[in-house]
Amino acid sequence: MVATPKIRTQVGIIGAGPAGLFLSELLHRHGIASVILESRTREEIEGTIRAGVLENWTVDLMNQLGVGERMMREGHFHTGITLRFKGQSHHLDMVELTGGKKVTVYPQHEVIKDLVAHRLAQGAEIHFGVRDVALHDIISDRPFITYAQADGTPAVLTCDFIAGCDGFHGPSRQAIPAAARKEFQKIYPYGWLGILTEAPPSHHELIYARHDRGFALLSMRSPEIQRLYVQCDPKDDIALWPDARIWSELHQRLETVDGWTLTEGPIIQKGIIAMRSFVCETMRHGRLFLAGDAAHIVPPTGAKGLNLAVADVLVLSRALEKFYAQGDSAGLDAYAATCLARIWKGERFSWYMTTMLHTDEAASPFEHRIREADLDYVVSSRAAATALAENYVGLPI
Ligand code: APR
Ligand code: PHB
């Protein structure tokens, strides 16, 4: 009989999304060893289309970590965003409002590719395609993870700490007893139908549009590819959205300003996502620390998801560094409270942008007018515009 492979590391990381990959990179910089267990293949994680806006400090962090070279070459750096409603366009100059901070569009899967390549070149252990990940003895000081390797062989990873970076559906959060978790959730009655289309960007910056027919967003991926979203029913079957219907809605919702036209091209990818806000209070149980989507979800308006995940692991890496270098566990003890204070602000901002920009059939005419007043306020008050801008480019960390 073949013995079960047993490996040992300092921090066992579950999930190779932005949270897990940034954490392993940050720990490496502090001389702390980690192993990542990821259920999907490298091709799958590098090919999944997600959001694409990086906060200003996330860009700085990528550069500090030496993984920013391609982003600086291929990313789109914008001075601001456009809000479009009631037939008018309003430019918010983020650079001017925030004293120099830019909007960076660089897709999440490109960030993933850069981090995976960098970690593997440093000799990191990332096990792709693992199955049946289970967490054990998390309240002891020798927690361990059991799993099946890609070839089906059972294996064990023992560690000092476990980082649950396995997204909303992963096993880590469930490993915390329900009685020790307090969960907050809001499900929105909106979905986003997202497309990639082979056409040069119709505008040099992002356009967020509120329209009686629903929200629409113009973004981009490269000089040849646009990313567009249109608000839909989250329960809609994609078959209800042939290309002609998508274009018709995008034209109606975005072309509300005289003389501006949306460029069409072949649709090369499309999909519908539902929208929720979710926070799990306590992000720590014994030696298990949750980070990123495992602990919190935001709706995509404002693209905070990746940035919140990276903020968590930056706090966690600093706390672990203190623990290993000085035997000081104060940072670990403060981890959940430190992260949650910032997370709730990200939740608030994502909820605010979502509510203000989407149309809700169930909302009363009064609420409808309040949302319009919110938008009017942002484009007519420097104080309101500054508040939006400082959240958009990223609150201090
Ligand atoms: N075992 C191992 N890995 C798992 C398991 C499991 N049982 N379950 C999930 N995973 C992996 C997923 O395959 C995924 O690659 O964990 C990873 C989690 O990555 P993300 O879902 O990207 O979450 P996170 O790293 O927290 O990134 C923040 O915010 O708004 C979103 O799109 C944004 O994905 C981004 C996220
Ligand atoms: C994207 O490009 O995918 C994107 C941009 C801005 C958002 C959300 C998503 O607010």
What's the helix and strand layout?
Blueprint: E1 6-8, E2 11-14, H1 18-29, E3 34-37, H2 42-47, E4 53-54, H3 56-64, H4 69-74, E5 76-78, E6 80-85, E7 88-93, H5 94-98, E8 103-105, H6 108-121, E9 125-127, E10 131-136, E11 144-148, E12 154-158, E13 161-164, E14 182-198, E15 207-209, E16 216-222, E17 225-232, H7 243-254, E18 267-281, E19 284-285, E20 288-290, E21 296-297, H8 305-326, H9 330-357, H10 365-380, H11 382-392
Parallel strand pairs: 1-12, 2-3, 2-13, 3-9, 6-15, 13-20
Antiparallel strand pairs: 4-8, 5-8, 6-7, 10-11, 11-12, 14-17, 14-18, 15-16, 16-17, 18-21, 19-20
Helix pairs in contact: 1-6, 1-8, 8-9, 10-11
This protein binds adenosine-5-diphosphoribose and P-hydroxybenzoic acid (PHB).
Residues 51-53, 105, 206, 219, 227, 300-303 line the site of P-hydroxybenzoic acid.
GO molecular function: FAD binding; oxidoreductase activity, acting on paired donors, with incorporation or reduction of molecular oxygen, NAD(P)H as one donor, and incorporation of one atom of oxygen
Protein name: p-hydroxybenzoate 3-monooxygenase
Domain FAD-binding: 8-349
Care to describe what's here?
The structure is a single chain. The protein has 397 residues and is an alpha/beta fold. It has 2 domains: 6-52 and 107-182 and 281-353, FAD/NAD(P)-binding domain, CATH 3.50.50; 188-275, D-Amino Acid Oxidase, Chain A, domain 2, CATH 3.30.9.10. The protein has 11 helices and 21 strands. Strand 2 (11-14), helix 1 and strand 3 form a beta-alpha-beta unit. The longest helix has 28 residues, at 330-357. The chain is globular. The structure holds adenosine-5-diphosphoribose (APR) and P-hydroxybenzoic acid. Adenosine-5-diphosphoribose is lined by residues 14-20, 37-40, 45, 50-51, 108, 130, 133, 165-167, 170-171, 292-293, 305-306, 309.
